[in-house]
Amino acid sequence: MEPFKIHILGCGSALPTLRHNATCQIVEVRGKLFMIDCGEGTQIQIRRSRIHFSKVQAVFISHLHGDHCFGLMGMLSTFGMTGRTNPLHVYAPKEFEQYFNLSMELFCKGLEYEVFFHCVETTENKVIYEDKSITIESVPLEHRIPCCGFLFREKPTAPHIKRDMIDFYKIPVSQINNIKAGADWTTDDGEIIPNTRLTIPAEKPRSYAYCSDTRYMKNLHKMVKGVNVLYHESTYADDFKDRAKLYYHSTASEAATVALKAEVGKLLLGHYSARYNDEKQLLKEAKEIFVNSFLTNEEMFFNVE
Fold this sequence. Notes:
Low-confidence stretches: none
Catalytic activity: Endonucleolytic cleavage of RNA, removing extra 3' nucleotides from tRNA precursor, generating 3' termini of tRNAs. A 3'-hydroxy group is left at the tRNA terminus and a 5'-phosphoryl group is left at the trailer molecule
InterPro entries: RibonucZ/Hydroxyglut_hydro (IPR036866), RNase_Z/BN (IPR013471)
CATH class of the largest domain: Alpha Beta
Order of helices and strands: EEEHEHHEHEEEEEHHEEHEEHEHHEHEE
Cofactor: Zn(2+)
Binding site for Zn(2+) 1: 63, 65, 143, 213
Oligomer: single chain
EC number: 3.1.26.11
């Protein structure tokens, strides 16, 4: 099975600390690298993660608070200094486009690679990226400004051929695609060989949902139902539930409630408030509702499985 990993580059919130970097993740799926959010200092975190600059092919910005996007222009400039030639695609709220174009003109003139900007409508749940192996959807969230999450889904793959059975029944190469598509095989003697004897079922497609800054949404679980891994912001513990509500953030227990209702495989917590010296309280409160909860931290990675 090809890797599907979440690399944590930053999991802090808006106020900088010496413990955590601003929000950023890299999703590695089927040999492709996608960045989600790009807080200050992201290019340094990429170096620490030992990910090659040129392999990041797209950046997805959830919203226009600085701890999620202030690192973008610096990173694009750094990419240019390393001799990057591969094009880069930026997906961000439509409100960002004018500022982005101006910043590119001021700070990133003369790049030797192309940067393409794609407007995202944060109020819509729709596919915004697709290739032969995955889709990426926008997931509307409720924050103080337009904001959305992102849902990565693998596309189903064909069953695996049992080479020894193909050879045994002398099935011609021209029929392999038909068998992968579910066809049985009929021998010269008229014996029908069922497809299940000729193939091994494909792995079940995996999925990852990233829910950036948002207040608790009672229906969010419907959009992320059954994903293998869910990242949901957990800025506060229950002792600051009123503050979470005021600033359109979530508590760890609220994130866990979404995970429980959505029947996900694993919950990742992040976007921690600077007021906590450690996040044990957040993890404890999440686990009381959803046992398979985990704290994120810089330079960690999580497998989607």
